[in-house]
């Protein structure tokens, strides 16, 4: 019983995924937790308070001004008498109200009044999820210390496809466990440096909810607006194309999704982001300056022109080799070059060039390691060889579906240790990575490193 004696306040938002919250109640109770439900007016169009009460074994709450309710357990007690609050499904509207601090019904009032950890499980139409307003609200909520699980990719109710599906009840229950154990770690006030060995965070910008000591402060002593506000970040993304002749090139299967998602997440976290991208078929991320390049040498030049930056993330799948003699004209079938074979020379290593800079090195240099075997071992070697601060290692064996796909399984490798994350959407990997980097930068600043 991994959640024995834990008390969960479950806020059910008004969306088609609300029916899954009933299953979530079951899952949480199976693990030993007690669950009390608050339903928004919208939620009650999809599930009834009676169903939630029957499954939770406790009276459900719906009305801020219910006299009976207030006499029995007021909204302030609801906001306090639990170990954490889970919002599932967290609709776009509920997220917007939370981000703005609204308190116009029982659910939003409880969410504003609580100081408990909050886990959101967003669910909405893919376009609503991707809308800059929702992404802005998400960034705001993450900066406030709220934890997030999902949304997952997949088919949606409106016959659309993409991120927006509620995380599965078992995934949400797993996330509840992680948030609670993570809080346990912080309550025992372990040094932040030990974090790499701790269970992975659930999309939190700061490991504990709310204004914990050590979160970045502005001059007035309040929390800064966004964790990367005022920071400059450089991200490389996509493949490079190395020309053989005017119509042919050497390339790889990188889609640019992971690098672009990182740029988007960093911009949402307040950073001024320049994305140096190889040729990709995906849209530019919102709020980011994009520099388009083709070859590794162009990418290096663009990176050098973009620096200085505090954080540089090298997510591009740069071609290691290029044709030694790029032909000025299309190579014909009977050309003698063909019979000699293609001559290759090595490209500059952009990451290593920047990481080994004596002057103007970004405070945090992050590399990726795309491996098809011995992932962590190779990543450790790369960390040392390339001189970076962190390597995000991923398995790109064809059966993993990572290259060109929408999900990623990564290991974070630093000189201090290895942290393995579950398989996540590339957007979620990006959010967590950006959160982690904001924290690392903050820790560096505190220690004067
Ligand atoms: N990288 C780079 N410039 C290159 C090659 C790689 O900046 N010419 C960066 C990538 O963006 C990535 C990291 O180095 O962050 C590792 O890339 P990867 O292809 O995994 O490693 P390689 O250096 O190519 O090593 P190997 O081919 O032995 O795996």
Distinctive features:
alpha/beta, Rossmann fold, 15 helices, 21% strand, elongated, binds cytidine-5'-triphosphate
Describe this structure in words.
The protein is α/β, with parallel strands linked by helices and 449 residues long. It has two domains: 7-191 and 201-205, Rossmann fold (3-Layer(aba) Sandwich); 232-323 and 336-447, CoaB-like (Rossmann fold), CATH 3.40.50.10300. Helix content is 34%, strand content 21%. The protein contains 15 helices and 21 strands. Strands 12-11-8-13-16-17-19-20 form an eight-stranded mixed β-sheet, sandwiched between helices. It has a five-stranded parallel β-sheet with strand order 2-1-3-4-5, sandwiched between helices. A hairpin with a 5-residue loop joins strand 6 and strand 7 (161-165). Helix 1 packs parallel to helix 2 (49-56), helix 1 packs across helix 9 (169-187) and helix 5 crosses helix 8 (132-143). The radius of gyration is 24 Å and the shape is elongated. Bound molecules: cytidine-5'-triphosphate. Residues 236, 296, 314, 316, 318, 320, 347, 349-351, 367-370, 382 line the site of cytidine-5'-triphosphate.
Q: How many strands?
A: 21
Q: Which term fits the overall shape?
A: elongated
* Low-pLDDT regions: 185-225
The main pleated sheet reads as: 8 strands, mixed
**Strand order in space, largest sheet:** 12-11-8-13-16-17-19-20
- Secondary structure class reads alpha/beta
Number of helices: 15
Please state the second-level CATH architecture of the largest domain: 3-Layer(aba) Sandwich
CATH topology of the largest domain: Rossmann fold
Q: Give the ligands present.
A: cytidine-5'-triphosphate
**What's the multimeric state?**
single chain
């Amino acid at each position: 019983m991994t959640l024995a004696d834990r008390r969960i306040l479950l806020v059910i938002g008004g969306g088609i995924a609300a029916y899954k919250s009933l299953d979530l109640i079951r899952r949480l109770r199976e693990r030993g937790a007690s669950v009390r439900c608050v339903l928004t007016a919208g939620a009650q169009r999809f599930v009834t308070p009676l169903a939630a009460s029957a499954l939770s074994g406790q009276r459900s709450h719906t009305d801020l001004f219910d006299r009976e309710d207030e006499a029995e357990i007021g909204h302030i007690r609801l906001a306090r008498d639990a170990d954490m609050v889970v919002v599932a499904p967290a609709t776009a509207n509920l997220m917007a109200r939370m981000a703005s601090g609204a308190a116009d019904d029982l659910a939003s009032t409880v969410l504003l009044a609580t100081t408990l950890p909050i886990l959101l499980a967003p669910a909405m139409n893919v376009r609503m999820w991707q809308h800059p307003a929702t992404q802005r609200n998400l960034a705001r909520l993450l900066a406030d210390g709220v934890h997030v699980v999902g949304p997952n990719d997949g088919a949606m109710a409106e016959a659309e496809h993409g991120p927006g599906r509620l995380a599965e009840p078992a995934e949400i229950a797993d996330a509840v466990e992680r948030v609670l154990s993570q809080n346990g770690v912080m309550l025992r006030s372990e040094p932040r440096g030990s974090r790499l060995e701790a269970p992975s965070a659930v999309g939190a910008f700061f490991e504990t909810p709310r204004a914990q000591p050590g979160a970045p402060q502005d001059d007035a002593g309040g929390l800064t607006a966004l964790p990367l506000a005022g920071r400059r970040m450089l991200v490389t993304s996509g493949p490079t194309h190395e020309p053989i002749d005017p119509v042919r090139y050497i390339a790889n299967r990188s889609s640019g999704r992971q690098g672009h998602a990182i740029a988007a997440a960093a911009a949402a976290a307040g950073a001024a982001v320049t994305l140096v991208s190889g040729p990709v078929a995906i849209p530019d991320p919102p709020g980011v300056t994009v520099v388009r390049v083709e070859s590794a040498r162009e990418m290096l030049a663009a990176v050098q022109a973009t620096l200085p930056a505090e954080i540089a993330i090298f997510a591009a799948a740069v071609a290691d080799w290029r044709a030694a003699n790029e032909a000025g004209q299309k190579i014909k079938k009977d050309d003698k070059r063909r019979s000699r074979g293609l001559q290759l020379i090595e490209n500059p290593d952009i990451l290593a060039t920047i990481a080994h800079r004596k002057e103007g090195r970004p405070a945090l240099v992050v590399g990726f390691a795309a491996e098809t075997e011995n992932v962590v071992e190779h990543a450790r070697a790369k960390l040392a060889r390339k001189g970076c601060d962190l390597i995000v290692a991923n398995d790109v064996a064809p059966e993993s579906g990572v290259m060109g796909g929408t999900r990623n399984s990564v290991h974070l490798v630093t000189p201090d240790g290895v942290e393995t994350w579950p398989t996540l959407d590339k957007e979620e990997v990006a959010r967590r990575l950006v959160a982690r980097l904001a924290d690392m930068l903050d820790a560096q600043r505190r220690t004067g490193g």
